[in-house]
Amino acid sequence: MNEKNSARLKLAFSMAVFGTIGLFVRMIPLPSAEIALYRAILAVVLIGVFLLVTRQKIPFGIIKKQLPLLIVSGVAVGFNWILLFEAYKYTTVSAATLSYYFAPVIVTLLCPIIFREKMTAKRWICFFMSTLGIVLITGNGGGAASNHLLGVILGLCAACLYAFAVLVNKAIKNVGGIHRTFLQFVAACAVLVPYTALTGGFHISVLDTTGIAALLTVGILHTGVTYCLYFSSLKDISGQKAALLSYIDPLVAVVISVFVLGEPITILQIAGGLLVLGFTLWNELGQDE
User: Fold this and answer.
1) What total number of domains does the chain contain?
2) How deeply is 46 buried, as exposed, middle or buried, from its count of CB atoms within 10 A (0-12, 13-18, 19+)?
3) What is the per-residue DSSP string for 8-46?
4) DSSP letter assigned to residue 200
């Protein structure tokens, strides 16, 4: 298998794994902040081992000027996880995930303001049609979900934090993807430890075998392993192919939600999801035009 095919396979696998995270989070009876904390800790350990084994030293001398931005983006990532995990509690995994995938649209809207990038007619169309998609997803109840609207709002808030992290990352220079992620997760740990302690404490002792297995899966597989595969694949794959493969994540999440968890989804929600994903993808594929 050549390097390009191997990179596509690694990226596709990473996206498919990301799409199952809602299923495993549902199996962990812990507060969202505590799940996010353990996820960050496990990821830091695994990525740290990966860096040691591959002998990739973190060039602190070069990146020290970027540390404030890395810390800010890491904090945003940590709280983005908390909000997404909370969204899973109030609405279906499919609705939460599709709402979360509004993040690229938010980035598109803010880039002209922050980086003075041109807001073309195509980007305006993508923004309005994706927004219409969110309206369709929001306007149809989540069936058995306890509070569908709140869940969608939490998903959108998570998307805002993710978009903020993306925008901060655009300003970070001379820091490799895996080094950047490692330092961001360290920053997330540093903030989530006191936050968790102050907002309810630690309850890991209540987990049974299933909960522990699910937590280890979220931290090791969904974060540590997949991030390593994700960043190792990006150097050998074009931006457009990466954008296409990234949509495996929400598609898998919807399949898991409907066919594994048995959560309801309406025709209008499906239409809304297609609008969000389709127009976001069209926008991303056109960024280099």
Assistant:
1) 1
2) buried
3) HHHHHHHHHHHTTHHHHHTT--S-HHHHHHHHHHHHHHH
4) T
* Lowest mean pLDDT segment, chosen from 52-61, 111-120, 191-200: 111-120
- Residue keyed to tokens 């109840």: 141
State pTM to two decimals.
0.88
Structural domain containing residue 111: 3-285
Asked if 22 and 253 touch (Cβ cutoff 8 Å), the reply is yes
**CA diameter of the chain:** 54
Residue 166 near residue 103 (C-beta atoms within 8 A): yes
Write down the H helix ranges in 54-120. 60-63, 67-90, 93-100, 103-114
Residue bearing tokens 């800790």: 41
Quote the CA–CA distance of 201 and 231 in Å, as a whole number.
33
pLDDT of residue 286: 58
Measured CA to CA, the distance from residue 140 to residue 268 in angstroms comes to 7
Residue 173 sits at φ, ψ, to 5 deg, of -115, 155
Q: What whole-number percentage of the chain has pLDDT above 70?
A: 93
Amino acid at 193: V
Q: Which CA distances in Å does 175 have to 35, 62, 63, 171, 233?
A: 28, 8, 7, 11, 17
Residue of 249, 223, 225, 245 whose CA lies nearest to 234: 245
Q: Of 253, 239, 230, whose CA–CA distance to 283 is shortest? A: 239
Q: What number of residues does the chain have?
A: 289
Q: Is the pLDDT of residue 243 over 80?
A: no
- Residue type for 175, please? V
Cβ pair 287, 281 in contact under 8 A: no
CB atoms < 10 A from the CB of 117, how many? 13
The secondary structure element, H or E, covering residue 271 is helix 267-285
| 28: pLDDT strictly greater than 80 | yes
> Which residue has tokens 């509004």?
102
What is the rounded CA–CA span in Å between residue 130 and residue 273? 9
